[in-house]
Amino acid sequence: MVERIQRWTYSSGWRAVFVGSLLLTQEQSGMAKDLLAPKEQEITEIGSTASPSFDDQEKGVPQSLFTWIKMAKGFDVEWDTFGRKGWYTQDPRLKPIDPGSVFTPEIPAIYIVFEVAPLEDPAQFAVQWYLEESRGQTTEHPLGKDVLEVPGHERFGYLELKRSGERWEVGTYLAKVYITPLGQQPFHAVNQVGTMRFTVEELVPDSPSSQNWIK
Predict the structure, then answer these.
(1) What's CA 210's distance to the chain center, in Å?
(2) What is the pLDDT of residues 21-57, one digit of tens each?
(3) SS3 11
(4) 47-59 pLDDT, tens per residue?
(5) Looking at residue 135, what DSSP letter applies?
(6) 4 has pLDDT over 60
C-alpha cells in the first residue's frame, strides 16, 4: 500500500512539473511574439480604415502629432539664434517653399515638410503614395516610399516623394503618412496617422484674351 502511494505521488509530481513547464513555455512564446515588430500590412480588419486628412488645416490646431504639415516644392533651412548674429541653437527650422497641392509633371520631387512637438524618443516618419484611379480607389501597390528617422527632441523634418520616371503621370495622388517607434515596421495600417492628396497637371499658359491689356 505504501509503495502504491509513493508511486502515485511521484507520478503526480512529475505530471505537475510537466504541465507547469508547458504553460510557462507557452506564456514565454506569446511574449516573444508580442515583442516582434508587426510585418507590413495595409488592412487590419474587415472593411476599410479611414484616416484623417491633413489637406485642410486650421491655424493653431495640431494634426495628430504634427504642429503643422504641408506639401511643397522644396524647403529652406533656417536657424534659431540666441539674439546675437552667429550664435545658433542646435535645431534648424524648415520652411516650405511654394507650399500647395498642385504640381507639374516635370518636378523631380515633392516634399512633405512638417513640425512636431519635441519628441522624447526617436521616431520614424514615413510616407507611401498611390495614384488614384477614381475617388477613393487607388492603385494596388504604392508608387514609392520614403522613411525619415527623427532623433529625440527634434521638431522639424521632411519626407521626399520622388517621381519614378521622367515625368509624373497626370492625375490625383494619395499619400499615406505613418509614425512609428524607431525599429518598428513603418508601413503598417495601425501606424497610419493621416493622408494627403495632391494633383499633377500640365501647366497651361494664360491666353492673351485672359490678360488685361493696357491701352
Answers:
(1) 42
(2) 444 444 444 444 444 455 555 544 444 456 667 776 6
(3) helix
(4) 445 666 777 665 5
(5) T
(6) no
C-alpha triplet 51, 54, 56: angle, nearest 5°: 125
Contact residues for 87 (Cβ-Cβ < 8 A; gap 6+): 81
Residue-level length of the chain: 215
**In the chain, where the domains are located:** 1-36, 66-200
> 66-200: which CATH topology?
Immunoglobulin-like (2.60.40)
C-alpha cell at position 107: 518636378
What is the DSSP secondary-structure string of 78-133?
Answer: EEEESSSTT-EEEEEEEEEES--SEE-TT-SEEEEEEEEPPPSS-EEEEEEEEEEE
pTM of whole model > 0.70? Answer: no
* CA gap 195, 63 in Å, rounded: 11
